[in-house]
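Protocol step 4 of 5: obtain the predicted structure for the target chain.
Materials: sequence only (see below). No template structures provided, no constraints applied. The aim of this step is simply to have a reference model before the mutagenesis design in step 5. Sequence pasted as it appears in the construct record:
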Amino acid sequence: MMLKVKNLKALWMLVAIFGLSVTVAQAQTGNVGVNTDTPKATLDVKKGPASDHIAGIIAPYVTGGELAAATGYGTDQNSAIVYVTDPAGSEAGLEKQTKYVTAEGYYYFDADAEDAQGRWMRLVVGNPLKDNKVNWFYMPSISIDASAPVSSQTLNLYTEYTDQFQNVAAPNRSTSAPSDVPFLVDPEDLYYYVVDFDPSVIQVNSISDQGVMNYDILQAADECAFINIVFVIK
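Step 4 output (structure tokens):
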């Protein structure tokens, strides 16, 4: 059937409606592209062809107060991202989802946090060392057998760390705390340092990028022997 249009304005309205229907269909059943006719993902955004095109994606701007008042976030909103322009007002939800909204920046919603109550978590961007931010922690305490001299022993510092941070049984954690303490899942996300030790007892030979330390016990330790190990997040 041929459809006659009476004027150019009506024709443009038909084109716009048809284009909108195609976009909606794509959003429902396939991939959507911006500045591309062949999107390679659910949403594929490409830079415009003009050399001076201002590219980028801007997350919704909200204040801490607005975020504290928005109580409808749940499992369906897991991983939602916003940009908090001013954290003022987030303190109204300190025992709610805005507990950690304390500074301007990007935040994502973690629906599983705090026993599935949900929390807004800040996305930390940048190099902590260059930005003069402290980003290190001591390795959890462990016991090393130093009862007799022995050479070329190995100890996986990363495994010792993650083993202590998983499956913490009640009552050894607070009532609402999850059983796992958050930890870095890749050993190469860390630098490993032995910053202080008793040189009469232990000699460090090497530490791999995966956190495996090779060491010698030079003599039996007394009760005051020690070794301090620091992890730095890359």
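Step 4 remarks: Residues 1-27 have pLDDT under 50 and may be disordered. Residues 115 and 178 are 7 Å apart (CA to CA).
Proceed to step 5.
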